[in-house]
Amino acid sequence: MRLTVNRTPYDVDVEPEMPLLWVLRDELGLTGTKYGCGIAQCGACTVHMDGMAVRSCQIPAEAADGAEIVTIEGLGTPEALHAVQQAWIEHQVAQCGYCQSGQIMQAASLLDMNPDPSDEEIDRVMSGNLCRCGTYPRIRAAVKTAGAKMRGA
Amino acid sequence: MSRVGKIARRTFLVGSAMIAGGVAFGTYLVRSPHANPLLEGLDKGEATFNPWVKISRTGITLITPHADLGQGVASAQALLIAEEMDLEMDQFQVSFGEPAAAYYNRALAEESLPFLATDEGRIAESSRTIVSALLKPLGMQGTGGSSAMSDSFDKLREAGAVARETLKLAASRQTGVAISDLRTEAGAVYLPDGTAVPYTELAEAAAAVEPVTRVRLREPSEWRLIGKPTKRVDMVAKSTGTMTYGIDLAVEGMVYAAIRINPRQGGKLVRYDATEALEMRGVQKLVEITGGIAVIADNTWRAIRAAEAVEIEWGEAPYPAEQAQHWEAVAASFNEDHLDQRWRNDGDVDAVLGASGDVFEAEYRSPYVAHAPLEPLNAIVLVGDEFTDVWTGHQLPQLLQMQVSAITGHTSGNVRFHNQFVGGSFGHRLEIGFVEQAAEIAVQMRGTPVKLTYSREEDFAHDFPRHIAMGRGRGSVANGQVEAVDLSIAAPSVFASQFGRLGYSVPGPDLQIAAGAWNNPYLLPNFRMRAYRAPELAPVSSWRAVGAPGAGFIFDSFLDELIHKAGADPMEERIRLMEHEVSRKVLEAVAEMSSWGGELGSNKGRGVAFVESFGVPFAQVVEVTNTDQGIRIDRVWAACDTGTIIDPANFEGLVQGGIVWALGHAINCEITYADGMAEQSNYHAHQGMRMYQAPEIFVRGLENGHKTRGLGEPMVPPAAPALANAIFAATGKRIREMPFDKHIDFV
Fold first, then answer.
1. What pairs with residue B62 in β-bridges?
2. Residue B454 per-residue DSSP state
């Protein structure tokens, strides 16, 4: 199978049903994408597939064959931060931080589609991403800051 | 003499946590101070002045031995050193260091004594000093009990000051300039002519001088960092997917393991058939370990999938199989045979209630709840010829070394523990079973590093949840005031369970059964508080704030009910009853912040609660709306007093997050047992709070207390009773059992 991850093509030889999450983590060594629940209940494994936010624990490798995948490592780097990552740092969102890759990927996808979401829209789109530390108040604020930056406001 | 002082003297007993610590770590005494572990392995040209600071020509490393579970203590510990050492927050690396007696936790020892935290009388204070001195030789290093900041506040500032003064001495020797003419700033010693000599260039010279030991700590007015919002040292990595947690680590030649352990906790493995599993792709081996099996494969997913394919017959649970039996055992414990401790007996409860024609009675329940941090448990263990290496995140390094040593046969000193950042703990990483399992697998795979990763389902099945508790209150009111409170709480002992798993019995009463209930600094004219120890049931563990989320819910809910019976205002009556000035100011602050007593819209209600835990008085007001889809939590106001606040930005985030945590579990989380197994296997059945349910949360930290306290836990206990009290105010319905969604719908 051939995947493009963060603009780099990879050939992988795995079972067709191996979830994309484990292809990324154990086969490609891209560990920024996290395993939390394995059943699409926590959102820690969120990546972008052909521009859409998806739960990589639910995407079999065969369904990702030929797709363009972007993970947290491809969104931005410590040296070249994405606007959402900048806002996360500015608002000091993370506590344990384990869910934040998924939160950031979900937020980036939301703002890509609508850089000026309402409070209700933010809550609705982000509620699939569980944060056990309870950083939701700061996530809300950071999404708004990032949206403003992306709008050039 | 204060009334709380008298009460504390009557209840002077040594706490179980302290004794357990002594048992666990031996009772040898060493007169000399603990050796600096950084001296071992120091390269030429590198200098260390104490166990927390290491400098070389290429950089500065600050050792932050308290485990960072997400609460930000790596940053906060480093900040305390940097404050006195005149370092900027981007001028050093942090490291958790190696386990060492030098990093013993003095604050954990102090808090193991059964004194009211508000009692700063002579006996309480001298006892704390004695216990701290006794525990120092034991070298018990640990993170827990919200103790990291109280343990570190003076110690790490001293470490920074010693480093600074030693560097100045070295600079003086090198340049011939008198020490009094030197100053330090941003990682350099400055000469009178303005020349900056970076600390890193002084490393070699500083290594040759004897560290200065007489230092003066700066006055609060001189602080540059303490009390100012800081950017945490882990924030960029955690926002870019570049933080390496234990689960992300890879070691050369590593294999992947998954386990299946009897979901009837502590039960046996009877028989299994691994025929199918062993034929699956990438599967290398199956090994037996205590209570179950482990599958070794070339990838985490393959290992988990193969482990799930093993057909297994499990033995019976060593505790009652059904949840109802657990409650029956607790309910049957309210009698003299099970009396663990009478924590309060003020006034004459029997006489007052006997004479009252209107005794109010109520019963409350607090369920089993899972920790379920988002990073599933994991550990890498390599058993070599001379050493065992362990990579994982854990709160008790020496305990880990000891337990692994017993499995692999290497001495504790030859068990090298590499502590990691973890994706949440909430008490989960105090448990040692997952590390023991990894060691049991690795000892059967000598020379090969084995990475054990729990599936989420295994993690839930073996969570060791918060203990269940039941409260029974009897009380009376008179003249519009609360007159008498007779509260009894029955629960299994969390310490007996935790230490029992390590093979130790714990003497003495369990401080945590009634924590959050007996210790609130109210002056109730007649107050009896009895704790009853239920038999051990399902194995349980310390869950964020341990006893206080259950007992605090029971105490504050019952007090609120009595205040309503008296026809008094819930806020005013609590303030009137509050004897302790620092705590009263916390209540007054939350009243002021929330404009308590103002007009609310229709269908709205507010509740207030106050619970002190870990020495931190904490009050919260919750506001809810009773909508046609259920209860919506709109806003929360929170005020507490932790003494000096190290970093107000992290402080606010921790309080908000902890309240979200506490409200979420109060609403919809419990672990129940059927056929001896936890019925909840993943987050769909144990949800916690989602963003759409999260209220706005306003936070204020007072700094009237003169001890610096930690904030990992104390925001948790008041949230559930404040919510229950608010629901009562909005609907007239009193909820006496968590999770609340068993009794009322939420939006």
1. B53, B94
2. -
CA angle B32, B37, B42 (to 5 degrees): 125
* Cis amide linkage into residue B318, ω under 30° from 0: no
Interatomic CA distance for residues B51 and B446, integer angstroms: 33
Beginning with the edge strand found earlier in the chain, give each strand of the sheet holding B47-50 in spatial order. B47-50, B53-55, B60-63, B93-95
- The answer to which of B152-166, B241-255, B463-477 has the lowest mean pLDDT is B152-166
Instruction: Give the domain range for residue B606.
Output: 323-369+465-742
Residues B305 and B274 in one domain: yes
**CA of B377 to nearest chain A CA: how many angstroms apart?**
10
Token pair 């610590």 is at which residue? B21
Please check whether residues B56 and B96 belong to one and the same domain.
yes
Contacts of A102 in chain B (CB under 8 A): none
**Residue B191 reports pLDDT greater than 50:** yes
Single out the residue in B453, B487, B515 at which a domain terminates: B453
The mean pLDDT of B636-665, rounded to a whole number, is 97
pLDDT digits over A93-120, tens only? Answer: 999 999 999 999 999 999 999 999 999 9
B499 or B241: whose pLDDT is higher?
Answer: B241
Single out the residue in B453, B477, B500 at which a domain terminates: B453
Q: At what angle do helices B648-668 and A136-151 cross, to 10 degrees?
A: 120
Chain A nearest-CA distance from B692, in A, is 5
The C-alpha atoms of residue B639 and residue B697 are separated, in whole angstroms, by: 11
Rounded to two decimals, what is the model's pTM? 0.94
Q: What is the pLDDT of residue B747?
A: 95
**Residue B297, strand partner residues:** B256, B283
List CB contacts (< 8 A) between A94 and chain B: 70, 232, 234-235, 238-239
Distance between CA atoms of residues A98 and B245, nearest Å: 8
Question: For residue A136, what are the CA distances in angstroms to A153, B370, B459, B721?
Answer: 23, 20, 24, 22
Other beta carbons within 10 Å of A148 = 15
Q: How confident is the model at residue B42 (pLDDT cuts 50, 70, 90)?
A: confident
| Start-to-end C-alpha separation, chain B | 50
Domain shared by B51 and B192, yes or no: yes
* Count of beta carbons in the 10 Å neighbourhood of residue B411: 12
Max Cα–Cα distance, chain A, nearest Å? 47
Q: What is the CA radius of gyration of chain B?
A: 27
Q: Taking phi first (over 0 means left), then psi (-120 to 50 degrees means alpha), and beta for anything else, what does residue B145 get?
A: left
> B693 and B723: one domain?
yes
Number of alpha carbons in the 13 Å side-chain half-sphere of residue B517: 36
Query: If you write DSSP's letter for every residue of B566-584 in order, what string do you get?
Result: HT--HHHHHHHHB--HHHH
Contacts of B185 (CB under 8 A, 6+ apart): B86
- Provide CATH code, domain A83-151: 1.10.150.120
CB pairs under 8 A between A and B: 184
Q: Could you tell me if residue B10 is inside a domain?
A: no
Fold of A2-73: Ubiquitin-like (UB roll) (3.10.20)
Interface of A with B in 43-82 (CB under 8 A): 44, 71-73, 76-78, 81
pLDDT at B11: 27
Separation of alpha carbons B237 and B426, rounded Å: 22
SS3 category, A137: helix
- Nearest CB neighbour to A31, from listed B248, B456, B657: B248
Tens of pLDDT along chain A (153 residues)? 999 999 999 999 999 999 999 999 999 999 999 999 999 999 999 999 999 999 999 999 999 999 999 999 999 999 999 999 999 999 999 999 999 999 999 999 999 999 999 999 999 999 999 999 999 999 999 999 999 999 987
What CATH number is attached to the domain comprising B416? 3.30.365.10
ipTM: 0.98
Give how far the C-alpha of residue B693 lies from the chain's centroid of Cα atoms, to the nearest Å: 25
